[in-house]
Structure formats: C-alpha cells, structure tokens
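Progress against Task 2.4 (sequence-to-structure conversion) is shown through the following example record, which the project officer requested during the mid-term review.
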Amino acid sequence: MPRLTPENKELHTSLMRQNICRTFAEMFAAQGDVSMEHLAEKMGIAKGTIYNYFEDKKALTAAVMEMRRQAMTALMEEKISPDLSASEQLEIFVSIMWQDFNTYRHLRLEYLRNNPVRHLSHRPRPLDILKSIMEQGVASGEFREIDSEEAALFIFCSLMGKFRHFLLKNLEADTEKEKNVMLSFLFPALKKS
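Structure tokens generated for the chain above:
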C-alpha cells in the first residue's frame, strides 16, 4: 500500500467530502429528507465516518448547497453565451434557476430551515452573470437604459423570494409556468418601448 503523504491525505479527504455531498444531494433530490444513517448505509460506510468529514447534518447541507451553487453557476457559464441576445440569455438564466430549484427543492428547504437568514460572505456568481446580461442588453440597445446592478439584484432577489415562498408554503412549482410568468413581467419592463 502506498505511503499516505500529506498531499494524498488532502486529496483523499477532498474526494471523500465530494462523494458524501454528491450522494446526499442525489438522495435528497430523490426522496426528500435523508438521515445520516441512511446516507452511510447508501454509501456502505459507518455513520461515524461521515462525522470525520462534516460536523453535523447542518454542515453537510451547507457544503452540498455550495456544491449545487457551483454546479449551477458552471451550467450558466456554459449555456449563456454572449453570442445570444440578452433576452435569450435572460431566459436561459431564469430557466436554469427554476430547474435547479425544482430538482433540489427538498435540499433547499432543509438548508432554509437551518439557515433562515443567510449572510453571504461573498457575492453570488449568478448575480454577476445576471448583471452582465443586463449590461449587454443595454449596450446592444435591446434593453432600455437601466442601472444594470439594480436590475440584476431585483431579478435575483425576486427569484429567491419566489423560491422561498414555494418552500415555506410547501407548494409544488410548475417551473415552466413560473419561468414564463417571470419573463412576461421582465421583458416588458426591460425592453425599449
């Protein structure tokens, strides 16, 4: 067996954390609430092993939410091309946000229960993507003159508020309908008359 170097140990820890997060997210998406016992059973490891990597379920949920945010941002960066019109980019952005919400709604609810008021230590990358869409729309003349930062913040917070509403009221969302409702509100407000 190879000697465990600090680099190997760090790599093993990182891979194990990722595997635990990925399995937890998949189970949550499929069935809703997941106990640490069921997670350990699914992974074929002892429950105590999970606690070697995460202090508790709250810490694991936060790590998984961060992993989901990164994956969602990567998907946005892949799908939202500056070659598309700002309207097309905005539609893709809203679609990705609603799809992620719908797929991981149970996980989001668990996170919201444990973190009712989240204080961000950094600016969310999707907000920067949205601001860029707004700037492109204004620069191309597709959107009227607006403060791109304020418009991006308004749209982002509107989405988050809508997600929170569905979660706290335990309502199922028709993501296609909700996307279309939001876009039918946004496009007339953004486009030049």
